[in-house]
Structures are given as C-alpha cells and as structure tokens.
C-alpha cells in the first residue's frame, strides 16, 4: 500500500547560516563562535578566525542564494529551513541598534523564497552565538543574554512578520549538554564547567525561548513558533531491567528540553536530578509565568539511535553520541548508525507525550560523493545510497502518520552540500546538489544536480506516492 502524506505537507530542505553563507565579515557582520572553531565541534578554539576554517567562505550562499533558491524551487520545495546569523543583525550581540545591512540580506533572501512560493522556516539561533557574548559574558551562563536575545528576537519578528510564518527558537537546544561552547556560547572549557553553571545556562535559554514565543505571538499572532531538539531514541541493550532503567534515564536527559518547551514547567525527574547533584537553579519571580508560553509545535533532528546499558565493558569512549552501539544496525561512512524505524518510534513517542504537531527538520546521510560525467555529458553524482537512506526514513514517517501522528513536514538536512558542523569538512556531503568545494579549499563553487535531486523532486511532486516500500 502506498505511503499517504497529508495534503499541504511541507516538503523541503534545511541549511544553517554558519555552514553555508560564508561572507563572515561582510556588510558589518561580527564574529560568531563558529568563526573560531575551524575543526568542528570537537576541535580546538582559536582566538580569531583562521584561514583553515572552511566556514568563513562556506559555499558562498551569501552571494549565490538566488541560484540556490531557484534549484530548490525546481525540486518543488514547499519550505526552506535556514537560520539568521545573530552576529549579522547585532555584530557583538549587545548593541542597542541592529545592523541594517544584515537585516536587508534576510529581507532579500526571504523575498526570493516567497517569489517561488517557498515558505521560510527560520531558526533564530543555530550554533553561532556572537563571539563577544561568549567571551565577555560566558554565553548563556550569564542571565544578561536573555535580554540580548529578547532584543534580537523582537527586531527580527518585527522586521519579517509579513515574510516568515514558521520559526524555531534554538537549534538542537539539548546539545548544550555535550557541546556547551557550540550550543550555548559558553567560553568556560567543557572539562572545567560545573553542572551548576551548565544547568543555569539551560534555564536562561528556556526563559529566552519562552519569551520569544510570547513576543512572536504578540507581534505576529499567526506565527507558528516551535522548539528544536536533537532526538536520539535510546534502546536498552538487553532486557535486563537495569539496562531498561539506564535507557529511561538517558531518554530523560533529552525529553527534559521538550518537556519544558511543551508543558511550561520543570518535570519531576529533573527536580530529583538537581537535588541529587546539589544544583540550585537561580530564578527570577517572573520566570515561572514566562515558561508557560509554550511552543506551537515540536521540531527535531533525527540521525541515529543508540543503546544504553550499565555494563561499562560495552561502552566506547569515542562514541560521538554517547551510549553503546546497536549490534543490529549498519553504520554510515562517519560511523553513525542507520535506523529508519527509529524515526517512526521517536515520532510516536513525541506525539504520545505532547499531542502537538511535529516537524522533522533535519534528517540525512553524510557520505563521500564522487562527481562523475553521466552518459548525457552532465556532471552529477550517482548517490543511490542517499536515495535509499532517505526513502527508508520517509517510509517510516508515513508509517507514523498512519499511526495517527500529526506531522507538519520534512526538511532534509543539507539539501545542498555545505560545511559539516561536526567535522568542519566539505567531504561529508548531505545535499541533493553537489558544490564543487573541497576540504583543501579548492574548487569552483559550481553547483551540480545529483541523482537524488531528481528523486526528491519526484517524491515532492507525488506527495510521497513514489516512495518504495
């Protein structure tokens, strides 16, 4: 039986400003935390941007966005997820007045999307806190960032209220647990960061996110504002009840972030965690009321599932996502385990928990692509492995819809090749569109349609009917 997607399903793709725009100091832009992380999330931080950082040029989307949006329109995109670089609007983050040239760039970008009938889905803060806020204030550890973020969100909601309907407050907000500098702009080295400061920073982000929902609805009542979490379903490695509890506690770490956004208060299991770790969150009297401004929908990324166990002998210290490997799953070129059914599982878990609309805003396969000349003389990539990956995951989205889950849309990650967040490489490619740029900085930046480009175009045209079960 064919997979049935609802009428009006928002098909599209996703990128992040810091991974594609480049132009890192053009038109008044300030430095962000990404500009000093040339090796990705696990690499060293530099004092100033260095030429080895591929993100400083990205794929030059800042100058080529019209060409790229036209290609997205050719695929039939209904929605395009991107982010606003905070340091384009407020270069240091704590100015009183915004940078007009930065605001104008996003005016032009959103106008170009809407010219083709593509709805922008905009992430307000996507892993690029202004560097000044990180160095001077220690990022989100400092409560002052709530005010700076409030000024920023009020500025962009007012400016783009007639152009943007769909918003996300923070990208993969729960990633701050593992990557406090990238996710929270926290300048204190991870190994020195106390749990007290980490969870204080998280509280500040929660308040800021709820304020954004409140402000956004006041300025644009029809706006749909969601949170965005990194979803990572966690299975017990064995039926041993101790492994089941270990998996539950690992899931709690991620559910915590969606729980506060969707329910408007701290769950009991986190209050227990705070007591047992002597964490005392400092709050202001108004915080509890602010948190009640809950999101309209839950959005999430999905790449992998993991297993948990109390058996330390099964654990590998180099595991990027924590947990332990699942012996039943294959892995990608970068060691990420591939689990399409996990996407159906997490969609059901989120919907059962919150009864709010869900949006899959990141999912994709990072792989090494080879640009070749096809029989008709065109340069392309025969990426059947990517087609299979996306097909199998989208079939599971369809299964979740049959289960009764309300799914708003799907935006494949890295719909055009860009610089990887985790490794800062170009060779880890996700896109339907190949960009001629390499890890050694060589390449023409020309764009080429991959085989998956035409496959995804057919998926959108048929509203999922062309998927292969």
What would your notes on this structure say?
- The chain has an eight-stranded parallel barrel with strand order 1-2-3-4-5-7-11-14, surrounded by five helices. Strands 6-8 form a two-stranded parallel ribbon. A two-stranded antiparallel sheet has the order 9-10.
- The N and C termini lie close together (8 Å).
- A hairpin with a 5-residue loop joins strand 12 and strand 13.
- It has 469 residues and is of the alpha/beta class.
- Helices cover 37% and strands 14% of the residues.
- It has a single domain, classed as TIM Barrel (Alpha-Beta Barrel), CATH 3.20.20.80.
- One of its GO terms (molecular function) is beta-glucosidase activity.
Please give the structural blueprint.
Layout: E1 10-14, H1 17-20, H2 61-75, E2 79-83, H3 86-89, H4 100-115, E3 119-125, H5 131-137, H6 144-160, E4 166-170, H7 180-184, H8 195-219, E5 224-231, E6 234-236, H9 241-263, H10 268-276, H11 287-291, E7 297-302, E8 306-308, E9 330-331, E10 337-338, H12 340-354, E11 358-362, E12 372-373, E13 379-380, H13 384-402, E14 407-413, E15 433-435, E16 447-449, H14 451-461
Parallel strand pairs: 1-2, 1-14, 2-3, 3-4, 4-5, 5-7, 6-8, 7-11, 11-14
Antiparallel strand pairs: 9-10, 12-13, 15-16
Helix pairs in contact: 2-4, 6-8, 12-13
């Amino acid at each position: 039986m064919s997979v049935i997607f609802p009428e009006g399903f928002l098909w599209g793709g996703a990128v992040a400003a810091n991974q594609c725009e480049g132009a890192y100091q053009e038109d008044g832009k300030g430095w962000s935390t990404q500009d000093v992380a040339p090796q990705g999330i696990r690499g060293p931080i530099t004092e100033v941007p260095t030429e080895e950082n591929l993100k400083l040029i990205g794929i030059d989307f800042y100058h080529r966005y019209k060409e790229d949006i036209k290609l997205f329109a050719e695929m039939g995109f209904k929605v395009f997820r991107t982010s606003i670089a905070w340091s384009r609007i407020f270069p240091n983050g704590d100015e009183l007045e915004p940078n007009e040239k930065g605001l104008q760039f996003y005016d032009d970008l959103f106008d170009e999307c809407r010219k083709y009938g593509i709805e922008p889905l905009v992430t307000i803060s996507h892993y690029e806190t202004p560097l000044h806020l990180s160095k001077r204030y220690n990022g989100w550890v400092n409560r002052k960032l709530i005010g700076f973020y409030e000024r920023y969100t009020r500025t962009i909601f007012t400016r783009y209220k007639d152009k943007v309907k769909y918003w996300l407050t923070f990208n993969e907000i729960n990633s701050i647990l593992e990557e406090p500098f990238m996710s929270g702009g926290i300048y204190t080295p991870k190994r020195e960061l106390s749990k007290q400061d980490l969870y204080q920073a998280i509280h500040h982000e929660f308040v800021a996110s709820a304020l954004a929902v409140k402000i956004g609805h006041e300025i644009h009542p029809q706006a749909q504002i969601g949170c965005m979490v990194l979803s990572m379903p966690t299975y017990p490695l064995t039926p041993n009840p101790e492994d089941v509890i270990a998996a539950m506690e690992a899931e709690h770490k991620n559910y915590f972030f969606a729980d506060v956004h969707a329910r408007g208060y701290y769950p009991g299991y986190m209050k227990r965690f705070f007591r047992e770790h002597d964490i005392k969150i400092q709050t202001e009297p108004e915080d509890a009321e602010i948190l009640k401004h809950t999101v309209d929908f839950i959005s999430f990324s999905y790449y992998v599932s993991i297993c948990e166990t109390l058996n330390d002998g099964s654990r590998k210290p180099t595991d990027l996502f924590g947990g332990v490997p699942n012996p039943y799953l294959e892995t990608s070129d970068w060691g990420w385990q591939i689990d399409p059914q996990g996407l159906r599982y997490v969609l059901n878990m989120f919907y059962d928990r919150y009864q709010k609309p869900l949006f899959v805003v990141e999912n994709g396969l990072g792989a090494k692509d080879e640009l070749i000349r096809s029989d008709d003389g065109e340069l392309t990539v025969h990426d059947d492995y990517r087609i299979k990956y996306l097909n199998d995951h989208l079939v599971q989205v369809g299964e979740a819809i049959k289960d009764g889950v309300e799914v708003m849309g799907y935006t494949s990650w890295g719909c055009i090749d860009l610089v990887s967040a985790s490794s800062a490489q170009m060779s880890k490619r996700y896109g339907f569109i190949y960009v001629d740029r390499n890890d050694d900085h060589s390449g023409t930046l020309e764009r080429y349609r991959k085989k998956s480009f035409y496959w995804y175009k057919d998926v959108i045209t048929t509203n999922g009917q062309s998927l292969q079960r």
